[in-house]
Structure prediction request, 111 residues.
Amino acid sequence: MRVEFIDPGQLRHEVALESASLTPDGLVGHTESWTEVATVFARIEPIGATSEFGAGQKRETASHRFTIRHRGDVASGMRFSANGRIFEILTVSDPDETGRYLVCRTREDGL
Prediction:
């Protein structure tokens, strides 16, 4: 396996890693609230953007790749937030399986 070189100096964006908590609302549903798990530094790379039209409205979505130092508690379904922007984590992978870094593919809705 090829070891991927990642310059730690590129991890310059400070972002909050957040996890969802579900609280029953007393009926059949639940209330979702987000709690900050940690503050991490990331390299953020835009991947692409799409615009879809349906049901009389336009939905714009951007994809980004976040590279962070390895953490054992990062999973899809969590999110990053920075400067009022929300990035939903879709996938999490260790690019060279050395346990040094994680690469997270994210989606940002409603640009």
User: Anything to note?
Assistant: Residues 30-109 form one domain. The chain has a mean pLDDT of 90.
